[in-house]
Structure to design on (807 residues):
């Protein structure tokens, strides 16, 4: 108990408090800039923390992580320029809502849902980490394969009007994800002699190319022929503010998102994109008005933002207890722990108890700060929408190019981004779901690796499959899920 | 107009005159780190960059060009001017092993080496409830059951275990994993019998969370003499990974010598020693440029022999 009190006092010290504030600000700003994202903000912040005290340093990075989560939603909602694949889910309803003259309302929904998701998963982390970690560890390649297969089936409901086009887009994404070194034989696949492609297509470059750049071009074309959308210009601040009570009506999608995000986050190797799209699909499935999703429904924003924020807290469960980072941001945190001489692992609660509890306190503090600083900034952020397209979009395009150049290592990635922008533009025109493409691109390599691992593990002893009852149940359920979704679809198109 | 011409002439004269008086480094040095930002290699590189700045009195601009275990940076550096203003950071195996696989367009002789600054630890880990406690026990388990499952991270560790499999006549089921943490996860969760790991496994071994049954470093793990090395176990392979500073071929001799001297001092700094010994848990290992090149060639010879045995 003394340790916990001492830890909270550490977290409340002025230096820690100021570093968390600085972290949250860096995160929000860098996350909001098109072409940049939360992991990049972390990479920028880590060298700044070299000389700081351990708790201040880690608190700052946690602030960056959480601020970056909300910052990503700002670009996605206001400009339709997601900086990370998972933010693509936020654009689905966030951007239509902003375009319909309610940018502040959309941002508020994202902010409250993001902080709520974060807080839920932080509480799970604080209360249950060691227990949950043991279960998470039991999920090996066989279990992950089963989870990914059933998830992909659920997400297929996002394929838009044409199921065939959605499947085509996902398959194309999965195919392009095979570029790079074969995980098993280490021989290059489809790299055409470019060493830059050995580690696969740079995800941020592809995602921003396909998702953001065509949008920028469309807006610029529109800006030349049309006046800016009227309701955005004439919107009054009063009508565009959401009473907190109204957000509470979104509690079901928010809690569901937090649950999905926490579960996915606790299992290393699945990640934010899966959580965001799973939560979105589930909300669509159980919505009373599923046809409204994708046209600016607050439920859609709440579902994705709570889920992707919940991943970040839960990611620390395997990180702290086992030293295993669940995604890129968590991997960067491990690096920071290392630099400050803290070894994540089973004994961290004994060896570095004061630091760990201090970290927990800093996490809760960061959530409050994201809420406060985010709310203060809402009015400012929403102003972006009032800037004429011919001014803002060229700047956004420039930021995308610079961001990719800096973070992905040079012009090679910039050219790739522009090439994928052309692909994205054609997909937009042909009404092929870009979102399905991104899902294929992100989940494809995970599915490939976990299935190949499972096959290798079971190859000498196929009967060992019976040691994996959980996976068997999920695989057995998959056709049932597919059947329900196909039936839903028919009902929708009939009605 | 005349005045402007005078100024222009004076500026030109100064610019041309400058190299005669100025000594390397007279402008900031671009430092290309062959790994993504945020990891242990990147942290070491950034600490050394700060020390270099102090030694040389010039800015050292760190840029990350990660990918293919340092090969992306190596290829990039190969195409840069050898004036000493663009240098790179990768690991020993980027030059000693990766070219032997025939998948990259460079070899040891296509680059110049400035120094080796510190060594990495590499070990074989096993779950804490594995049915064996040592290397011999692992081989026995593999023979009795017919196979063992092994979590691999990089092509080299894959090749080494294939080599061991050939020598011992055991079937090794090689499970590819993405990165050190994924391989550790497979071992901690008991999904494999054996895994490859860097120094991150050492604290887990000390905590009793996993077993370490051998090290690939020549000389072993100094704080744990009970861990045998592949050499003492009777295999003539090693994995001698270390951080290498390098530059384009035919680098300016003065610049190279100055960088080498500055790094010799930088590795003695308190901040760096603390990082290597207590945080990264690597080994102190400084080699000059010439020694680095000789070490790379010696290692490459071992790997080429090993590849032959595997291909038989």
């Amino acid at each position: 108990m003394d340790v916990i009190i001492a830890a909270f006092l550490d977290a409340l010290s002025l230096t820690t408090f100021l570093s968390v504030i600085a972290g949250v600000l860096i995160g929000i700003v860098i996350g909001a800039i098109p072409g940049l994202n939360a992991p990049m903000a972390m990479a920028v912040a880590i060298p700044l923390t070299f000389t700081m005290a351990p708790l201040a340093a880690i608190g700052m990075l946690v602030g960056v992580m959480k601020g970056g989560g909300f910052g990503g939603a700002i670009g996605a909602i206001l400009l339709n320029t997601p900086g990370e694949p998972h933010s693509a889910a936020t654009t689905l309803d966030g951007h239509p809502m902003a375009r319909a003259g309610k940018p502040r309302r959309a941002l508020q929904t994202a902010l409250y849902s993001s902080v709520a998701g974060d807080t839920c998963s932080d509480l799970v982390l604080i209360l249950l980490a060691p227990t949950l970690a043991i279960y998470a560890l039991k999920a090996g390649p066989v279990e992950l394969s089963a989870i990914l297969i059933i998830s992909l089936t659920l997400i297929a409901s996002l394929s838009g009007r044409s199921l065939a086009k959605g499947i085509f887009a996902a398959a194309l994404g999965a195919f392009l994800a095979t570029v790079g070194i074969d995980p098993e034989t280490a021989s290059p696949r489809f790299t055409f002699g470019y060493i830059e492609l050995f580690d696969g297509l740079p995800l941020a470059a592809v995602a921003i190319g396909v998702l953001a750049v065509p949008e920028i071009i469309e807006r610029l074309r529109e800006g030349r022929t049309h006046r800016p959308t009227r309701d955005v210009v004439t919107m009054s601040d009063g009508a565009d503010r959401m009473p907190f009570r109204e957000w509470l009506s979104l509690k079901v999608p928010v809690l569901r998102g937090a649950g999905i995000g926490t579960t996915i986050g606790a299992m290393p190797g699945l990640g934010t994109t899966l959580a965001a799209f799973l939560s979105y699909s589930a909300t669509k499935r159980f919505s009373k008005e599923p046809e409204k999703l994708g046209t600016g429904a607050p439920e859609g924003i709440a579902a994705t933002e709570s889920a992707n924020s919940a991943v970040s807290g839960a990611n620390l469960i395997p990180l702290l207890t086992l030293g295993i980072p669940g995604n890129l941001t968590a991997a960067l945190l491990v690096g920071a722990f290392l630099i400050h001489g803290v070894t994540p692992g089973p004994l961290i609660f004994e060896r570095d108890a004061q630091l760990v509890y201090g970290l927990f306190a800093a996490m809760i503090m960061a959530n409050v700060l994201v809420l406060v600083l985010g709310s203060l900034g809402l009015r400012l952020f929403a102003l972006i929408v009032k800037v004429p397209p011919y001014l803002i979009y060229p700047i956004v395009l420039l930021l995308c190019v610079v961001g990719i150049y800096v973070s992905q290592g040079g012009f090679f990635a910039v050219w790739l981004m522009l090439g994928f922008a052309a692909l994205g533009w054609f997909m937009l025109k042909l009404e092929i779901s870009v979102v399905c493409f991104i899902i294929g691109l992100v989940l494809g390599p995970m599915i490939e690796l976990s299935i190949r691992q499972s096959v290798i593990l079971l190859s000498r002893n196929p009967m060992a499959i019976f040691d994996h009852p959980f996976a068997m149940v999920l695989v057995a359920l998959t056709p049932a899920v597919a059947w329900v979704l196909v039936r839903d679809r028919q009902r929708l198109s009939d009605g | 107009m005349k005045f402007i011409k005078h100024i222009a002439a004076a500026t030109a004269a100064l610019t041309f005159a400058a190299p005669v008086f100025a000594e390397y480094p007279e402008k900031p040095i671009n430092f290309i780190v062959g790994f993504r930002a945020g990891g242990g290699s990147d942290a070491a590189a950034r600490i050394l960059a700060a020390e270099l700045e102090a030694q040389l009195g010039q800015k050292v601009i760190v840029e990350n060009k990660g990918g293919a275990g340092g090969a992306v940076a190596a290829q990039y550096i190969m195409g840069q001017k050898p004036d000493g203003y663009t240098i790179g950071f990768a690991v020993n195996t980027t030059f000693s092993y990766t070219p032997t696989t025939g998948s990259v367009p460079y070899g040891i002789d296509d680059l110049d080496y400035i120094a080796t600054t510190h060594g990495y630890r590499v070990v074989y880990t096993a779950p804490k409830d594995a049915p064996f406690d040592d290397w011999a026990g692992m081989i026995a388990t593999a023979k009795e059951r017919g196979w063992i499952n092994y979590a691999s991270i990089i092509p080299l560790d894959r090749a080494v275990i294939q080599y061991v499999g050939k020598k011992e006549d055991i079937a090794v089921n090689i499970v590819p994993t993405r990165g050190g943490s994924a391989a550790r996860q497979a071992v901690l969760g008991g999904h494999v019998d054996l895994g490859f790991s860097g120094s991150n496994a050492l604290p887990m071994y000390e905590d009793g969370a996993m077993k370490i049954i051998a090290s690939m470093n020549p000389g072993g793990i100094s704080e744990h003499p009970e861990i045998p090395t592949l050499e003492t176990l009777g295999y003539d392979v090693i994995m001698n990974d270390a951080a290498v500073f390098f530059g384009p071929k035919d680098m300016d001799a003065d610049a190279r010598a100055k960088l080498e001297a500055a790094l010799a001092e930088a590795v003695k700094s308190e901040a760096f020693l603390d990082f290597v010994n207590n945080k990264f848990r690597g080994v102190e290992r400084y080699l000059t440029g010439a020694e680095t090149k000789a070490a790379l060639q010696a290692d490459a010879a071992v790997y080429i022999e090993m590849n032959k045995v595997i291909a038989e």
In short: Chain A touches chain B through 50 residues (CB under 8 Å).
